[in-house]
Amino acid sequence: MGLRRAVILVALAAGLTGTPAAAQEAAPVGDTDAAAAANAAEQARVPERIEIGLSTETVAITSDFTGQALTIFGAIDNVDPLVHRQGRYDIFVILEGPRSELVARRKDRVFGIWMNVESQSFDNTPQSYLIASTRLARDITSLDTLARLSLGVGQIRVQPHPDKKQAREVEQFTSALRRLKRGDGLYQEFPGGVRFISQSLFRAELALPANVPLGQHRARAYLFRNGELVGQTEAPLRIAKAGFEYAVSDFARTQSLYYGLTSVLLALFVGWLGRIVFRKD
Amino acid sequence: MALYLPIAEMSVNILVLLGMGAAVGFLSGMFGVGGGFLITPLLIFYNIPPAVAVATGANQIVASSVSGVLSHLKRGGVDFKLGAVLLAGGLIGSTMGVYVYSLLRGIGQLDLIVSILYVVFLGTVGGLMLFESVRALRRARSGEVVSLRRPGQHTWVHKLPFKMRFKTSRLYVSVIPVLGLGAVIGMLAAIMGVGGGFIMVPAMIYLLKVPTNVVIGTSLFQIIFVAAYTTVVQAVTNQTVDVMLALLLMIGGVAGAQYGARAGQRLRGEQLRAMLAILVLLVALRLAYTLFIVPDELFTLTVGGVL
Question: What is the Cα B72 distance to its own chain's centre?
Fold first, then answer.
């Protein structure tokens, strides 16, 4: 019963995609035929190219910033219409934040008090990592490829700073790093976040969290056909404070003494004003 | 109503912060303390990075102390000379405090030390104050006259050399404990983001025997300068003073303080002290809880290097 239903489903699928496979035949035979045909066609074709365009080179953070949707548009050159119709093109779009050293610390009980005891630093780790894809990553390609290209929160390459710790312990810190980043919304996956809007155009929807790190980000895009990487590209994106927010933080950084004095003067003024305005005696 | 804070680099709700400032301002006006010991833990609770909470707390205290001093000044409740000596000690303590603060942050133990300091100081001060005020309330009920100051009573503090006369406080005392007290409070101010009124006030009353009518005014007077100094030093060394955050807290705080002061006038001194003691103890217990109970998440993550 179960077997027969499976066969019928395969037959239906084959019929819909237009593969001339007989309903009685076993499905794998038809699949290899199609793959062989595609391979033959591939040699004659110009390879695909993927391009992405950001509507802006800088995302400006102003006082009303509470996170923002970021749309990245892209195009594929030399699309094979047949592969596209079969839905065999897959795309990953990643926005990776500035890299820095991160320190993970673990609390332990010391004389009954919970305090930071062990720590592990990670070199050159992205502070944020947002990834959108056409569907679930493991449905697109092999785990090896995902790991090689660091596609996915679990696949981000982290470099634990070498020290005397055992591998198992380092692994604990590494998984804590991913868990905490995920919890803060800084490492996020958006499966289904990339959609085709025409045969060759696509758009990726990412959500910048409110706590997105500032600085130079890097947008990367990968094109897969039949689970094989066929193209990749990247573009820079700066996320920076703008307007008043920028003026204040720039002042605090470059003229820190005057910034401190200004803060104090402001406090003196508000205190005095409060006394005048709200005086109750 | 959301606002992106330029230094804390996060989005916050304006109304929550105004409300927080007003609530703490009300309590501080009522009890005559700066309220720093409430605002800093509240900010950390609201996910403001502890470094920013501590430094910005100091800035906010400047505003609430100015507001308070102005109202005490009118009643002649400020001893400028005593305040100046406390201040001299305070500046030394504050400088050391900011240095210790950077050091602790580097080795990742800042949160722990800040929590322990809060638990120890709030617990001790709250406990002593509760004990004293309950005794005073009992006595008042049985009809005895309550006086904190018994003239002619001397302790070891009065046997120290380098004595100095403080006219407004009618006090003749060695400068050593005054400077020392100022230094300890200044150091705490820098590390804990508090003005230190909650330690300064009881210490002046019980240790230096300063009359109660000048204690609060004088304590607030010197806190203005210590907090202002701490703000500048934090701004220069750690760059963690968020002026927008401070402004929101100040506006709520100075408004709340004036109403709180009026509410406080309707209560008797020992009732006020008992209530303040309970409040202080509650904050201490809340912080102690986080130290001793198994945390939900054992790991924390920070950007930057280890020392």
Answer: 17
